[in-house]
Amino acid sequence: MESKTPQGIHKSKGGLIRSFVTIEKGMIKEISISGDFFLFPEEAFFMIVEELKGIKAKREDVEQKIKEIYTRENIQSPGTTPSDFAESIMKALEG
């Protein structure tokens, strides 16, 4: 079975979020996120990307996981919320 890597772009108040997601059997296999948003602490960004791998490619699951990481790591992202990231990822999945 062939996997493709569609792109999802979402503009939040804090900046543009671009996501590339590869799914396999309904799960996120690979994901990369870039853009011109700010995230503090910066290393939390890598945690988000790593921890999204292996979860179901469903909006509720994606958004819940990002919210958990935001809370646990006390992430600050001016103008950008977990739902903005989820929106970009969902757009990639629908790509």
Give an account of the 3D structure:
By secondary structure, the protein is an alpha+beta fold. It has one domain (about 5-95): CO dehydrogenase flavoprotein, C-terminal domain (Enolase-like, domain 1, 2-Layer Sandwich), CATH 3.30.390. Helix content is about 40%, strand content about 25%. The two termini are about 20 Å apart.
Total beta-strand segments:
3
- Rough outline: globular
The count of domains is 1
Spatial extent as radius of gyration:
12 Å
- Termini separation comes to 18 Å
Strand percentage, roughly? 25-35%
Q: Can you write the helix and strand succession as a string?
A: EEEHHH
Short note summarizing the structure:
With 95 residues, this protein is of the alpha+beta class. The protein has helices at residues 44-52, 59-73, 82-94, and strands at 7-12, 15-24, 27-35.
